[in-house]
Amino acid sequence: MRFLFALFIAVPIVEMVVLIQVGQQIGALWTIALVLLTAFIGINLLRHQGLATLSRATWRIQSGQIPAKEMLEGILLAVGGALLLTPGFITDAIGFLLLVPFTRQFFASRLMGRFKAFSSANGAAGSFGPQGFGQGGFNSDESIIDGDFEAPKDAQPRDKIE
Question: How far apart are CA 142 and CA 38, in angstroms?
């Protein structure tokens, strides 16, 4: 938590310093134009990569698989898009890294490995496969009894408090 607090304080300060330095080198109008250009390019790249990730996720769902990696890539795309819309060159660089397919898939694979290690360490080793949840599927528990229920005809409605 302290790390995030320090990050929220440090990043804007570093961004302002970099913007001032770039503005002194190339001028204020060119700096503003460059920030707007990176935002425009980022939005178009985000749209293209988002649609590609969505189509891969749709294909996985139709083939009966869970699109876990695609969902994580979608989150990384959203973070990358938010960073690109934030004015500054450092956040733009990180945002572009999250929008480029090669680096985004690298980050997604690393995060998936951490999620798998975390879930197996906490006893959440069940999975969703062709047979459903868990190791043996939906019906792995033999103590389930199928039955029907009918309400008595003379029962009073109980939606009022008397």
Answer: 59
Q: Is the pLDDT of residue 64 over 50?
A: yes
Say whether pTM exceeds 0.70. Answer: no
Q: Tokens in use for 88? A: 């500054």
Number of continuous H segments (helices) and E segments (strands) in the chain: 5, 2
Supply the angle between the helices 68-85 and 89-99 in degrees, to the nearest 10: 160
Q: Which of 84, 102, 105 is nearest to 93 (CA)?
A: 84
Q: What distance in Å separates the CA atoms of residue 46 and residue 53, rounded to the nearest whole number?
A: 10
Average pLDDT of span 135-145: 56
Other Cβ atoms closer than 10 A to 108: 22
Q: What is the mean pLDDT of residues 84-99?
A: 90
What Cα–Cα distance (Å) separates residue 70 from each residue in 52, 84, 103, 132, 145? 10, 20, 14, 20, 37
**Residue 133: its pLDDT value, please?**
47
Residue 115: the pLDDT is 75
What are the DSSP calls for 100-113, one per residue? SHHHHHHHHHHHHH
Annotate 10-39 with b (16+ C-beta within 10 A) or e (fewer): ebeeebeeebeebeeeeeeeebeebbeebb
Q: How long is the chain?
A: 162
